[in-house]
Amino acid sequence: MPERTLRVGALYPELLNIYADRGNLLLLERRCAWRGIAFALTAVSLGDALDPEAHDLLYLGGGQDRDQALCAEDLVATKRDAVHAHADRGGALLAVCGGYQLLGHHYALDAERRLPGIGLLDLHTDRGEGRLIGNVAIEVDLPGAGGPRVLAGFENHGGRTVLGDGQPALGRVLSGHGNDGRSGAEGAVRGAVIGTYLHGPLLPKNAWFADWLIATALGIAPGELAPLDDRLEDAGHASARAAAGRR
Ligand code: GLN
């Protein structure tokens, strides 16, 4: 019998699943299984109630504007208080791209249409001219991660995200566009709540970050997780970094 279980709640997995969001969840499942940690995945979708005590990690993926609009209304109407309560008790949350935008105050599609956000992170997003697309590398300094580390990934967003004055970014852009293509900031962090534009196979490309999430969600230090043979993962990470460097 596994001693521990990582309880993951995937929000709107059938709508917010653009670019490998399912793969990110699968990677979490595998890295837990290899260590004898049980993995319980629950889908929480349109109209479902969210129990703020039920999950160690919430996952909110990316989506096209159309799918985001459906989720935005539902998130605000039926899950906002529970997501806040989850975060306030230290629960972890990873929100990617479209999901990240929904954690802010709003996502304005144009002058008339504004999707509401749940205000968990102090930021807002407005649609800009053209899309910000390409490989990206950022430097992040997460508690317990043993100093600054690199996250490498891929971004593709029309939204430009502006952080509030006291809102820390997730990281500093080394190459790529980040939140708005000019501030040098990428993503946002509040305790164990992480929002980022890095999608595609974010977790497979950054196994160290997957472990940080697993450990943080379980309330232990990343160093307490049993080490795995990460030669393949490390090579994948190096190649994602190199791809970002070649922009
Ligand atoms: N629809 C949002 C944007 O274009 C998010 C896109 C995404 O999740 N890839 O900014």
TrEMBL record:
Origin superkingdom: Bacteria
Binding site for substrate: 131
Catalyses which reaction(s): L-glutamine + H2O = L-glutamate + NH4(+); beta-D-GlcNAc-(1->4)-Mur2Ac(oyl-L-Ala-gamma-D-Glu-L-Lys-D-Ala-D-Ala)-di-trans,octa-cis-undecaprenyl diphosphate + L-glutamine + ATP + H2O = beta-D-GlcNAc-(1->4)-Mur2Ac(oyl-L-Ala-D-isoglutaminyl-L-Lys-D-Ala-D-Ala)-di-trans,octa-cis-undecaprenyl diphosphate + L-glutamate + ADP + phosphate + H(+)
UniProtKB keywords: Cell shape, Cell wall biogenesis/degradation, Glutamine amidotransferase, Hydrolase, Ligase, Peptidoglycan synthesis
Signal peptide stretch: none
Residues of the active site: 97 (nucleophile), 199
Limits of the CobB/CobQ-like glutamine amidotransferase domain: 7-206
EC number(s) per entry: 6.3.5.13, 3.5.1.2
UniProt xrefs under PROSITE patterns: GATASE_COBBQ
CDD domains associated with the record: GATase1_CobQ
UniProt-listed InterPro entries: Class_I_gatase-like, CobQ_GATase1, GATase_3, Lipid_II_synth_GatD
Pathway in which this enzyme or protein is active: Cell wall biogenesis; peptidoglycan biosynthesis
Pfam entry (one): GATase_3
Record-stated family: Belongs to the CobB/CobQ family. GatD subfamily.
Function comment: The lipid II isoglutaminyl synthase complex catalyzes the formation of alpha-D-isoglutamine in the cell wall lipid II stem peptide. The GatD subunit catalyzes the hydrolysis of glutamine to glutamate and ammonia. The resulting ammonia molecule is channeled to the active site of MurT.
Assembly description: Forms a heterodimer with MurT.
Protein's name according to its UniProt entry: Lipid II isoglutaminyl synthase (glutamine-hydrolyzing) subunit GatD
Provenance organism: Patulibacter brassicae
UniProt lineage: Bacteria, Bacillati, Actinomycetota, Thermoleophilia, Solirubrobacterales
